[in-house]
Design a protein that fits this description.
14% strand, TIM Barrel, binds zinc ion, 13 helices, 2 domains, alpha/beta, eight-stranded parallel beta sheet
Length: 327
C-alpha cells in the first residue's frame, strides 16, 4: 500500500531500531545482549517480558542528544512506510526523570529532530506526553505537569501507557484534568489486557477523546454502541495484539466488526520493531484478512486525520494532503 498514512498510536522508544539500541549500548559499554534474539530483533515471551525488554532497551538512551538521534532514525523509517503524519508517545519518565527543566531539554532536541525529518522526508510529527500507569498516580501528576507546561505546537496530547492490569483508573483523573485544562487531547491505553470494564473506566473517569487499543470493547455490545454513538476513536494496533497474543489469529481480530458497528477505528503499529511490523505490513495483513481495499484505507486515514490532536491548520493541511480537502 503506497497511499499516504496517518499514524496515531506509536511509542517513540518502542520504535527504536534494534541496531541503534545495540550501537548506543556498545558506546556506553552496557551489556544488553539478552534482549535480542538470534535474528538480531527484540526477543521476549509475553507482555510482562515485553515491558522488561522495553525498559532495558530504553535504558541506553541517556540524554537529549540520544533522543534526537532516536527521533531521526525512527522518523526516517516511519516516513519510508508512507506515514505523512505521526503522533508519537513521549514519556517524561524516560526523558529527564519527570524534572521539568530536563524534560524541556529533551523535548527541544526531539522537536528539532522532528523538524529536520519533516524537511528531509515530509513527515509531520506531533508529541503526546504519556504517563506510565504502573508507576502510579503521583508520577502521573508529574508527567501531566510536564505536559501542561510544554503544551503547544509540538506537544498536542496527554496519555497513559504501561500495564493496564495495575492501579485504579480514577486515581489518574487529577493528571488528566490538568492536561485537559492545558488544552491537550486525551488518550489512554485500555481494553487490551483488560476487558470492557477497563474501557468504561477511561471513558468515565478520565474522559478521554481516544482509546489506545480498546479492542476488547468488542466483547460488550452496549459498550460498542456507546463508542459508536459518542465517536470516541480507537487507536487499534492489530499486529501488536497478534504479537502479544491478545488474539491468536488475524481473523480473530475485532477491528472489522468494530468498524462495521460504526466505531471510529484507526490503524497504528504501537512499537513496530518489537512486534516485527510496519505500517505497510499492517495494511497488507488487513487487506488479506478482511478484504479491505484502497478506499477503506483512505477512509481510515481520514478518520485518523480528524482524530489527530494537532491544531486546525495542521489538520487542514493534512486532509488536503490526503486529498480529502474540498478544493
Ligand atoms: Zn501502546
Amino acid at each position: 500500500m503506497t497511499l499516504p498514512k496517518v499514524e496515531l498510536h506509536h511509542h517513540l522508544e518502542g520504535a527504536a531500531p534494534p541496531a541503534l539500541i545495540r550501537d548506543m549500548a556498545r558506546m556506553r559499554g552496557a551489556d544488553i545482549g539478552g534482549i535480542f534474539g538470534p535474528d538480531g530483533g527484540y526477543a521476549y515471551r509475553d507482555f510482562t517480558g515485553f515491558l522488561a525488554v522495553y525498559e532495558v532497551a530504553t535504558s541506553v538512551l541517556k540524554g537529549p542528544e540520544d533522543y534526537a538521534r532516536l527521533t531521526g532514525a525512527v522518523l526516517e523509517n516511519t516516513a519510508a512506510q508512507g506515514v505523512v503524519y505521526l503522533e508519537t508517545f513521549i514519556s517524561p519518565d524516560f526523558c529527564g526523570g519527570r524534572d521539568l527543566g530536563a524534560w524541556r531539554e529533551y523535548l527541544h532536541a526531539i522537536a528539532e529532530a522532528a523538524r529536520v525529518a519533516e524537511r528531509a522526508h515530509g513527515i509531520v510529527t506531533r508529541g503526546i506526553v504519556t504517563c506510565i500507569r504502573h508507576f502510579g498516580p503521583a508520577m502521573a501528576r508529574d508527567a501531566a505537569l510536564c505536559a501542561a507546561e510544554t503544551a503547544g505546537d509540538f506537544i498536542v496530547g496527554f496519555g497513559m501507557a504501561g500495564d493496564e492490569r495495575r492501579g485504579v483508573v480514577a486515581d489518574f483523573a487529577y493528571a488528566f484534568d490538568m492536561a485537559r485544562e492545558a488544552g491537550l487531547g486525551l488518550t489512554a491505553h485500555a481494553g487490551e489486557w483488560e476487558g470492557p470494564t477497563s474501557v468504561r473506566a477511561v471513558l468515565d473517569d478520565l474522559r478521554v477523546d481516544r482509546i489506545g487499543h480498546g479492542v476488547r470493547a468488542a466483547e460488550d455490545p452496549a459498550l460498542v454502541e456507546r463508542l459508536a454513538q459518542t465517536g470516541v476513536v480507537l487507536e487499534i494496533c492489530p499486529g501488536s495484539n497478534i504479537a502479544l497474543g491478545v488474539y491468536p489469529r488475524w481473523s480473530d481480530h475485532p477491528i472489522a466488526r468494530l468498524r462495521a458497528a460504526g466505531v471510529k477505528v484507526t490503524v497504528s503499529t504501537d512499537d513496530p520493531p518489537f512486534f516485527h511490523t510496519t505500517m505497510t505490513q499492517e495494511y497488507d495483513r488487513l487487506a488479506q484478512t478482511f478484504g479491505w481495499g484502497e478506499d477503506d484505507f483512505a477512509a481510515l486515514n481520514r478518520v485518523a486525520a480528524e482524530a489527530a490532536f494537532c491544531d486546525t491548520a495542521t489538520r487542514a493541511a493534512l486532509l488536503k494532503r490526503l486529498e480529502f480537502a474540498d478544493d
